[in-house]
C-alpha cells in the first residue's frame, strides 16, 4: 500500500513558507477566497521563478503537497521536503509511486500542487504536459489556476531566476473548473481534449492576472 504524504507535514511547510516568503519578499495575494475550503483541489501553477512553489505553499489558504522533481530530494533538503509532505517525482519516466501518492492526496481530500509546464520556463502555460489532465480526470478534483507574477528582469537580482529581495510578488488564484467533459472517460483522446480545455483556462487566467496586477 502506497503511503500518502503527511497532511500535518504540509501544514508545517505552509507555516514555514509564510515566514520565509513574507520575510524575503512582499507577497500580494488575490482571489484566495476562490479556493474550495474542503475537498480535493489541484493547483495548476505557472513556473518562471525558483520561489513559485514555496511562495504558493506559504500564501495559499490550504496546505499543499507539490510534485517536485526528484533531483531536489538530495541530503538534508530531501529529508526536509519529505517531512513537509512534498512528493518526489521522476520527470523522465512513468513514476507509478509518485502517481499513486498524488492520487492518495486527492482521495484524502487534500490539495495537490502541479507545475503543468513540467519545468521552470517563461511561465506562460504555453506547453502543458498531460499529467495535470490525468490527475484531474482520474480524481474528479477541480483545478484552481494560480499565477505567480514577479519581476526577474529588474536590476538588483542577487540570484538568477529570483525576484529582487523585498520585491512585490503577486499570487493570483482563479476560479476552480472541471477538466473533464463529465463522461468520466480516461482514454488518450479524452485526456488530450482535457489538456486543451485546461490550457485555454490557464492561459485566460494568466492574461486576466496580468491585467489585474499590471504585470
Describe this structure in words.
The chain is built from six helices and seven strands, in the order H-E-E-H-E-H-E-H-E-H-E-E-H. It is an alpha/beta fold and 215 residues long. It has one domain: Glycerol-3-phosphate (1)-acyltransferase. A seven-stranded mixed sheet has the order 1-7-6-2-5-3-4, sandwiched between helices. Helix 1 packs across helix 2 and helix 5 crosses helix 6. The longest helix has 26 residues. It is globular, with a radius of gyration of 16 Å.
**What percent strand?**
15-25%
Mean pLDDT figure? 86
Measured between the Cα atoms of the first and last residue, the distance is 45 Å
Radius of gyration: 16 Å
What is the CATH T-level topology?
Answer: Glycerol-3-phosphate (1)-acyltransferase
- CATH homologous superfamily identity: Glycerol-3-phosphate (1)-acyltransferase
Sheet with the most strands, sense and barrel status: 7 strands, mixed
How many beta-strand segments? 7
Based on helices, strands and strand pairing, what is the structural class? alpha/beta
Instruction: Please identify, by name, the CATH architecture.
Output: 3-Layer(aba) Sandwich
**Major sheet: arrangement of strands:** 1-7-6-2-5-3-4
Number of domains: 1
Order of helical and strand elements = HEEHEHEHEHEEH
The CATH C-level name is Alpha Beta
Low-confidence stretches: 153-158
Count of DSSP-assigned helices: 6
In helices, the fraction of residues equals: 25-40%
Shape: globular
